[in-house]
């Protein structure tokens, strides 16, 4: 599983700015992108718990390094910033459910 963490870290560091802007500019695009990555993770056999841990890592990166591009991202960033570790973990699970039902 460390290998997956490394890949996530590498992807976050090397993400093309133009593509990142495209994904984050519209909340529906963000949900579609996240949904496609969740689907890929499920096909790789990752559990919901593991997907939530990866989602936490990505959300933490976004909260620290990206300005919200829309109202939805602003709300998520605010919730993330006031949440305790357990609450952030629950929010990650809720994000997974949100993109799975799309």
Automatic annotation (TrEMBL):
Domain of life, source organism: Bacteria
What Pfam family is a match for this entry?
DUF3243
Name assigned to this protein: DUF3243 domain-containing protein
Q: Which organism is it from?
A: Planococcus liqunii
């Amino acid at each position: 599983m460390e290998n997956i963490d490394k890949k996530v870290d590498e992807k976050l560091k090397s993400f093309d700015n133009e593509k990142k802007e495209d994904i984050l500019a519209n909340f529906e695009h963000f949900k579609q992108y996240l949904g496609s990555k969740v689907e890929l993770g499920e096909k790789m056999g990752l559990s919901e718990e593991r997907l939530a841990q990866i989602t936490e890592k990505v959300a933490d990166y976004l909260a620290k390094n990206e300005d919200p591009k829309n109202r939805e991202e602003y709300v998520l960033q605010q919730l993330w910033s006031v949440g305790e570790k357990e609450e952030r973990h629950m929010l990650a699970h809720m994000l997974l459910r949100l993109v799975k039902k799309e």
